Amino acid sequence: MTERARRPLPNRNRASFRFAALLAAAFALGGCTGTASRDLIVTSAIGAPAGAIAGTHGIFVATTRAPAKRRTEVFNGERGNMLSFAKVDVTVPAVHETGKLERPRVGAKINPAKHFAATDATRYAGDAAFRDALAADIASNGGRALVFIHGYNTSFDKAVFRATQIAHDAGYQGTPVLFTWASAGSPIGYVYDNNSATIARNALGDTLRLVASAGAKRIDVVAHSMGNWVTMEALRQAAAAGDRDFGGRLGDVVLAAPDIDVDVFKSQLRDYGPPDKPFIVVTSAKDRALNVSGFIAGRSRAGDYADAQDLASYGVIVADLSNVEAGDSFNHTTFVENPVMVRMLGARLTDADGLGDTETQLTDSITRLAEGVGQTVTSAAAVVITTPAAVLNVAVGE
Question: For domain 12-395, is the CATH number 3.30.830.10?
Answer without folding.
Answer: no
